Amino acid sequence: METDISPFWSRQLQLAHPSWQPHLKNGLDAVYAASPSYLANLERAHFLPTQDRIFAAFAQAIDDVRYVLIGEGPYPREESASGICFMDGAVDALWSEDGLAKKLNRATSLRNFMKMLLVAEGLLDDALTTKEAVAKARDLGMQQQPPLIQRLTQLQENLFRQGFLLLNASLVFRADVPPVQDAKAWLPFLRVILSALAEKNMNRNDEVRLVLWGKIAEQVHAMQESRLFGLIVAEHPYNLSFVTNKAMQEFFKPMRLLRTC
């Protein structure tokens, strides 16, 4: 494993940008060194995400990364687990007549993230975030130029354009394995990725920053590698208080992630 990777893992790497390939292989080597049987067992297991999307988050070049947003793990549903944190593959349209689209509204973290972005845009009062208020905010946003984006893929593209690496701490979910167990197995991989980005930091003017939400922040904070980055920390978006978090509103406001350009 330390010199060659199996066809299974070679296939998983295909969605990653070439600039990430050596670092991902080093990360797999680190996982193997810490737990020699883990990756081989994973090859024989049923896990999410499917369709060889374990490394889908690494689609953009390493030099384009400005922020690392670290989620906890893939959604526990096949249609939702996309390999990209917080990007629910079951969600397409963002809006409905009632405000937020039904599938998006069921995804608590994504729903609160959307509401926070509407507040950051000045379209929604964070003291009043009912579906009627969201519907009015949507209508107002549609009348403005540029108009609001319509699909989750557009939000994902906007995040990539801003330089976000949308990475889960655990790259897989298995129904028969406690998530904390898989997350622990992937910690060596995460350390390798952060080390690679820290090395890039030494040769650039704009420092890569870590965006940490919820309990995952405690885990990453404990890593020595995290000390090499600027940190942006908040509660997890499944908390309603995330919508009213002024620091998050100010951080995302200039990015205008809900706009078409």
Describe this protein's structure:
The protein is built from ten helices and six strands. The termini are far apart. 42% of the residues are buried. The longest helix has 23 residues, at 179-201. It has one domain (1-261): Uracil-DNA Glycosylase, subunit E (3-Layer(aba) Sandwich), CATH 3.40.470. The protein is of the alpha/beta class and 261 residues long. The strands form two sheets. Strands 4-1-5-6 form a four-stranded parallel sheet. Strands 2-3 form a two-stranded antiparallel sheet.
What is the compact description of this entry?
With 261 residues, the protein is α/β, with parallel strands linked by helices. The chain has helices at 7-12, 21-34, 38-43, 102-106, 108-120, 131-143, 152-161, 179-201, 215-221, 246-252, and strands spanning 67-71, 95-96, 99-100, 164-168, 209-213, 230-234. The chain has a single domain (1-261), classed as Uracil-DNA Glycosylase, subunit E (3-Layer(aba) Sandwich).
